[in-house]
Amino acid sequence: MGLSENSKGLILAVASSAFIGSSFILKKKGLKRAGASGTRAGVGGYTYLLEPLWWAGMVTMIVGEVANFVAYVYAPAVLVTPLGALSIIISAVLAHFMLKERLQKMGILGCITCIVGSVVIVIHAPQEHTPNSVQEIWALATQPDFLIYVAATVSVVLALVLHFEPRCGQTNILVYLGICSLMGSLTVVSIKAIGIAIKLTLDGISQIAYPQTWFFLTVAAVCVVTQLNYLNKALDTFNAAIVSPVYYVMFTTLTIIASAIMFKDWSGQDVSGIASEICGFITVLSGTIILHATREHEQTTAPGRTSNHDTQFRLLCAMRVSLKMDLKNEDDPPLFEQHCYRANKSWRSEEPLVFLDNADFNSER
After folding, report:
1. Closest Cα partner for 246 from 301, 189, 184, 300?
2. Spatial CA neighbour of 288 closest among 246, 231, 255
3. How far apart are CA 276 and CA 121, in angstroms?
């Protein structure tokens, strides 16, 4: 007995999560190598295009996305979408071993919270009506409600790109991932239209001649390129163990909203279902805040070592203390030289900064 369509979709969805989760790590390592020998992607560089490891991650991601695309053809979204959370776990585990990016306890809590909230949203999301032709999808895409959503999405993306990215793109993870997720919600709609067109064509009802098919294909291509560009910037700037879950949460949430608006699946839903979805959104938001806070307070150096920024601050403190002490007692040997020597050594070796007296200074020097 052959596998059922749901079983095929399940296998493809799990394989997709494995490929996508691994691709985050491969691309991150490629971006690191490229940044060491050229301009980083986070500041507008494209040297990563010459890095084989980045292309390996790119190919892995494409394979995962294709598997995910085919999974939606065989199985409903309510089965496929929650399995995307597996990519978060895979990327976090691989980042721990391959990138040495330690995920703090609060980060783990944020991941679990995001996954739980996303699963709740997907489980209680209304069932969508599957269109039978590209023309039917076009009619849904040109209805006023969805056109308003598209206009709002494009406006927010332009605002993020033109206004917020130059100001806080390097410090706020939501800027890059917001662009990826907003464009991703439009990608899903276009990909679904393309999938239906391919499936109908394979069944003997050709959809190639319809201009709507090529329009959705063009939209999908533009959105995918935009997503990849800003996802590269996010991976190059922030911790991969944080990028993956936040991107998953935002992408899943916006995709469900776009799908609900376009396919009018909210109508007829009972109160308990709506309440469950609201709780899911609140849970996802809480998890995102926890993850973002973890990223902001994350230690960028190994335990027992100090960052250059902290050392610079302490160097200035040493100089200030030295000057004050010199002014107080001019008979003592100059302490300024001692403190600067010790601070400079601490800066180069990243050892804890300890102020010395004259005897210790002379013996160490």
Report:
1. 184
2. 246
3. 7
Give me the sign of the Cα torsion angle 220, 221, 222, 228: positive
| One pLDDT digit (tens) per residue for the chain, 365 residues | 567 766 777 788 889 988 998 998 888 888 888 877 777 766 667 777 888 888 999 999 999 988 988 887 777 666 677 777 777 777 777 877 787 777 777 778 877 887 887 788 777 766 656 677 888 889 989 999 999 999 999 999 999 999 999 999 888 989 999 999 999 999 888 887 888 788 888 888 888 888 999 999 999 999 999 998 998 899 888 887 678 778 877 887 888 788 778 877 667 678 887 788 778 878 877 776 776 666 555 544 444 444 444 444 444 444 444 444 444 444 554 454 555 545 444 444 444 444 444 444 444 44
- Lookup: tokens for 337: 């030289």
The CA distance from 257 to 252, in Å, is 9
How does DSSP assign 49-68, residue by residue? Answer: GG-HHHHHHHHHHHHHHHHH
Predicted model pTM: 0.62
93 φ, ψ (degrees, to nearest 5): -65, -45
Q: Is 40 left (phi over 0), alpha (psi -120 to 50) or beta?
A: beta
Is residue 303 within a helix (H) or strand (E), and if so which, with residue range?
A: none
Q: How far is the C-alpha of 277 from the C-alpha of 279, rounded, in Å?
A: 5
44 phi/psi in degrees, rounded to 5: 100, 10
Q: To which residue do tokens 């230690």 refer?
A: 299
Q: If you write DSSP's letter for every residue of 235-262 in order, what string do you get?
A: HHHS-HHHHHHHHHHHHHHHHHHHHHHH
Distance between CA atoms of 352 and 346, rounded to whole angstroms? 6
CA distances from 136 to 31, 190, 201, 305, 353 (A): 42, 13, 15, 61, 69
